[in-house]
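sorry for the late reply, my laptop died twice this morning and i had to redo everyting from scratch. anyway the thing you sent over, i finally got around to it. pasting the sequence first so we're on the same page, its 438 residues, then the predicted structure underneath. double check i copied it right bc i was rushing
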Amino acid sequence: MTTTYDPKHPQYLDEADVRGELTRVYDLCHGCRLCFKYCTSFPTLFEFIDRHDDQDAGRLTPAQQDQVIDECFQCKLCYINCPYIPDLHEWALDFPRLMLRADAMRHETKQVSFRDRVTTDFMGRTDLLGKVATATAPLANKVVAAPAGSAIRKVVEKVTGVSSVRLLPPYARQRFSTWFNKRPRLKINKRQGRVAVFPTCLVEYQKPEIGHDLVKVYERNGIECALAEGAGCCGAPFLHSGDLDQFNKIAAKNVTALAKAVRMGRDIVVPQPTCGYVLKKDYVDYVGGAESRLVAAHTFDAAEYLMKVHKNDDMSLDLDFTGHVPASVTYHTPCHLKAQNIGLKSRDLIKLTGAKVKLVQQCSGIDGMWGLRAENTGISIPIAGKLGDEIRKADGEVVAGDCHLANTAIAEQTGQEPLHPLQLIARAYGILAEPPSR
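ok and here's the structure:
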């Protein structure tokens, strides 16, 4: 077996080698059990091994190994809390990246069902889907907004594999990039930064209001904004489903486009945590090279960049909050933002307004597309239910969160519509929200 997380390693996709590494890691995880609470992968793993008197992970069948893989939704929390990670311990254990390796191996060796491949191909082509859905928004949104479990949603599930019972975010009539190119240009007198906005497919097609407020808040603070020209979906749906061919094509194209923006003197700003993680971490692993490292070094979460300005002695963040500042904010920390190890920048940004912030750190169980796949409904909805319970318990005047899909899960479970932290900051400045185009 080979302990490697390098997708270019010659043994990376070898089935026997991958399954040997799974046995090694499963045995270590079973002996530790620190991560029992993060997802069902670990309780399932422990139960399988505990069936045997000698508790030998090598006794697991390939099907049992695969069930553990299928229940991992790449929240990354086990990696954050694992004491045996690469560079810190000789065991070099990185469970999430091993799951990605195993998914890629199963995809390469045709161990993924035709049904799963169809679902991945449909859900992974977010740019194509977004362009069609925004062009036909009224019709597309009738389908998206159909009641959970309704006949039309069941038909969609049968054709595409998208769960018929999950709340889905609607599409906008006007894409973020269209709004950006049409908006009046603001002259910035004291420039404090230059950024290229990587809107992500969620902001581009479904929640452009986040992008509107990001640009307005940034420009108020002297940060010049441009679009990340030539870049599209980050490719996470394909990566997390094991389709490395599709992911690598997308990633290489994006790295070229984003590196060009960086060489023009711009940092990359990302308003969605999963996409930010992919740009900072996964492109370095899968694309590699100087350009991917350049992109990673200049990529920032939207709140992270503003806090960088705030902490810079030669710059200043506008703290004149004359608009609506809620007394209390329930802030949900997305897992993929915690996995970036940048601290709680959105919380810190919200606190600058004077609002009292209550943290909720329960996972949403979404991971991009994993929680919306029909076959994962039985696992993902109970996880979202726990998040809903925590949101209700916190009882903040406003709910905020950086991940639009996690926010959709919160809305599904609680009926409350969370704001992105940049939207909350915009309202605190007195910047009016633009009416959504649905």
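The longest helix spans residues 244-263.
thats about all i looked at so far, will dig more tmrw
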